[in-house]
Design a protein that fits this description.
The protein is an all-alpha fold. It has one domain. It is 72% helix and 0% strand. The chain contains 3 helices and no strands. The protein has helices at residues 10-36, 39-67, 84-106. The longest helix is centred in the middle third of the chain and has 29 residues, at 39-67.
């Protein structure tokens, strides 16, 4: 089966090298943050990023339930078996980020 696409090549270029460009941009921005932020602010930013990743994983795990209009379910028992690992990793990331943020809140200045 042959697949041909009618485009001017720009779409194909973005499809192939878009992720590389995003990685380079994230590297440059993180280098700027590393030089501009103090160590505590950097750890806070990482903790919030890990929490965001965790929330994204939980959303991804529960997406099949949301499509069935089942919004208020608790636990991983109702999830499809292939999505349970996303759910558990998501909660692990959220708990880790919460522990770091609580540590920051309890630390003396």
């Amino acid at each position: 089966m042959e697949y041909r696409r009618q485009s001017n090549g720009l779409t194909t270029l973005v499809e192939h090298f878009g992720l590389l460009g995003i990685c380079i941009a994230v590297g440059i921005v993180s280098k700027l943050f590393l030089t501009l932020l103090s160590r505590a602010e950097w750890c806070l930013a990482v903790a919030l990023s890990v929490a965001g990743v965790g929330v994204g994983l939980i959303f991804l795990a529960k997406l099949p339930l949301y499509r069935q209009r089942r919004f208020f379910t608790f636990g991983s028992g109702v999830l499809p078996p292939d999505r349970r690992s996303f759910y558990l990793w998501g909660y692990g990331c959220v708990i880790l980020a919460a522990a770091v943020l609580i540590g920051f809140a309890l630390a003396k200045p």
